[in-house]
Design brief:
112 residues; mainly alpha
């Protein structure tokens, strides 16, 4: 039962495929032209994006480095101000001398 049904469906598909193969030559040429144009446009867009990234990435890196230089300079000046401020006042303990100590608590440590 299933075998004959499958054969009928396969024959119907083969007839449809054969009918489509006999299509107009103009339709085939038009389809190839449209697909070719789409491929060329996609390649041009890809090339444009690649060139754009080559231009933009150095600018982004320059801005990031400039920002980091300003940040490190501000941190250095802040440390110098804290050091001068600590020298003028009475030293109350070791924590006031070293402002670079960060205290924290480990919440989850993966032991491997």
């Amino acid at each position: 039962m299933f075998n004959s049904s499958f054969r009928q469906q396969a024959a119907a598909w083969q007839q449809q495929f054969a009918h489509r193969q006999r299509g107009n030559l103009l339709q085939r040429i038009l389809a190839w032209l449209v697909l070719g144009i789409m491929l060329v446009v996609a390649a041009a867009i890809l090339l444009f994006m690649l060139l754009l990234s080559w231009l933009v990435i150095p600018i982004v890196i320059y801005r990031y480095r400039k920002k980091m230089r300003r940040f490190t300079e501000a941190a250095r000046q802040h440390a110098e101000q804290q050091q001068h401020h600590g020298q003028r006042h009475d030293h109350s303990g070791p924590a006031s001398r070293d402002s670079r100590v960060i205290e924290g608590e480990v919440l989850n440590k993966d032991e491997r």
